[in-house]
Amino acid sequence: MQYLASHGQDKTGNDVIFSWLARYQNAAAAGAAAVNGTIGALLEDDGILAINAVVDAALRTAPAAEFAAYAPLKGLPAFLDLSVSLALGEHRQALVGLGLHTGATATPGGSGALYLAASNFAERGDAVLLRDRFWGPYAGFLEGCGLKAATYPLLPSMNETSTPHLDLEAFSSSLDELAATQQSVMTWLNDPAHNPTGLSLTGESRYALLNAFMESATRNEHVGHTLLLDSAYHLYADEPHGWAETIAEALDAGLPWPENMLVCFALSLSKSHTIYGLRTGALVYLHPEEASVHRLNDVMGITGRQTWSAAPRVAQHVLSELHATQEGGQAWSGERDRLAELLSSRRERFLQACAKHSVNINPSHDGFFAWYECDDPVAVAEACASQHVYLVPLTGGVRIGLCAIPTSEVERVAEALARATEAIG
Fold it and tell me: Is the pLDDT of residue 110 over 80?
């Protein structure tokens, strides 16, 4: 195709998640008693998309103009304020009191926030530091912005002394390598409720990672350092604002915030407010210099204007109004708590079933997913599919979408994994 540029020619293949979802759908349509563990959306136990009824009711009463009108390029001011509060929670005022300034830009979903970061916080040709198990589209966002990925292990090795669920030595070593060869260092950390594993760092590990990042920025004062926290699932975690708490603890303990360091939150309201298709999110950023935050507001607004124009307006308006009152916020959180309990009960039952059937599942704490580490993910997924249990094979393992699996079918998934492991050897 001569009309495609060379970088367009490289865009081939189907999304692995949606291809396995299609296999489930075909099996179910053919009458099989199939289990769907593929999709990354929260379903009720009857298989219907879970929807926060409070958000749905508020949307349906929004004025027509709020559906039809453009939003400001950077987002509605009330929504930007809400985004900061959703990212930082009850620690917002403490962080401001400790000298941090906050800013935000509205984006089309969490993906838009990731794009803003990839587009602006790393030099073309740089590598961005990721854990070696990550959401697949990360690679596409980076590649589309002329970036590469560098990785460190998701978990420490068995004989290595480290903090819980964090290979701190590997993380620090990777930072040193990138800082020695690049003008900018950025790491993306999907925490808490990591996709695809459901792993969440402890407070000890958060503090150790932040300290390592601060020390790297201090040693390499001419290298920009950006810690991006992908918060797509954080409002379903046991510690939804753990990172804000950890940052406050570090500053209160006197750890210096280097001028060349930025912390960002990539916020998605798709999951927390069950409005996937309305594409609403934000990039929230923290820095001790107010002028730097104002400059970031301009940069992000211009980037958005040059990419998607303005993020959709209606959810920005509706959610700002909903959370503006204590009654509205409590009503939303009541529904959110119900959905979080649904996820928690499925996870607890799944981990118990895995123990019962001797399935060596990875540590999994929060959010939508669990993870089975293995050498041949496709073979494991195929063996499960032969039992009409449909999961997603990814690099290094199989993702189990607890968000989609009915509670009554959770043990069946553990049984399928046990049989798959036995069959493959």
Answer: yes
290-330 tens-digit pLDDT: 999 999 999 999 999 999 999 999 999 999 999 999 999 99
Architecture of domain 71-312: 3-Layer(aba) Sandwich (3.40)
3-state helix, strand, coil in the chain (%, to 5): 50, 15, 35
| Dihedral sign, Cα of residue 288, residue 290, residue 291, residue 296 | positive
Kindly tell me if the per-residue pLDDT of 91 is higher than 60: yes
8 Å CB contact between 47 and 24 = no
Contacts of 19 (CB under 8 A, 6+ apart): none
The amino acid occupying position 246 is T
Q: Bridge partners of 148?
A: 127
- Average pLDDT estimate for 376-385: 97
Backbone angles phi, psi at 364, to 5 degrees: -150, 125
Domain with CATH 3.90.1150.10 in the chain: 6-52+330-424
pLDDT digits (tens, 9 = 90+) for 341-366: 999 999 999 999 999 999 999 999 99
CATH superfamily of this structure's domain 6-52+330-424 = Aspartate Aminotransferase, domain 1 (3.90.1150.10)
| Exposed / middle / buried, residue 326 (Cβ in 10 Å: 0-12, 13-18, 19+) | exposed
**Residue 62 half-sphere exposure, CB side, CA atoms within 13 Å?**
23
What residue type is assigned to position 410 of the chain? Answer: V
Which helix (H) or strand (E) segment holds residue 371: the answer is strand 369-373
Assess contact for 185 and 129: CB atoms under 8 A.
yes
In terms of Cβ atoms closer than 10 Å to its own Cβ (0-12, 13-18, 19+), residue 44 is middle
Q: Is-contact 300 116, C-beta < 8 A?
A: yes
Task: Say which residues have a Cβ less than 8 Å from residue 263's Cβ, sequence separation at least 6.
Answer: 226, 227, 228, 229, 247, 285, 286, 287
Q: Band of the pLDDT at 128, cuts 50, 70, 90?
A: very high
Is-above-0.90 flag for pTM?
Answer: yes
Residue 158: is its pLDDT beyond 70?
no
Residue type, 164: P
Backbone angles phi, psi at 400, to 5 degrees: -110, 115
Vertex 130: Cα angle to 123 and 305 (nearest 5): 45
